[in-house]
Amino acid sequence: MNLEILTPDKKVFEGEVTSVTVPGTLGSFQILKDHAPIISTLEDGPVIIKGASGKEENIFNIKGGVVEVLDNKIVVLAEAVIA
Description:
The protein is mainly β. The chain has a single domain (2-82), classed as F0F1 ATP synthase delta/epsilon subunit, N-terminal (ATP Synthase, domain 1, Sandwich). The chain is built from no helices and 9 strands. Strands 1, 2, 3, 4, 5, 6, 7, 8 and 9 form a 9-stranded mixed β-sheet that branches. β1 (2-6) and β2 (11-24) form a beta hairpin. It is globular.
């Protein structure tokens, strides 16, 4: 799967991943390969990324936004990424 994390200022992350956990408005949820198409709002919280190797892990703390999943492409549009 391909993941992009974008803010109004820049592209924060782009790459191949095996799973992504996002802070949904009604609770966190995980996106895996062949996930059904979805658009969801996001709350402030961590986006947890497992890399293509399955072992590496990145965490980005976002400040709200939206996630879209379609054909194994995930786009996270975040208001901001908190350092």
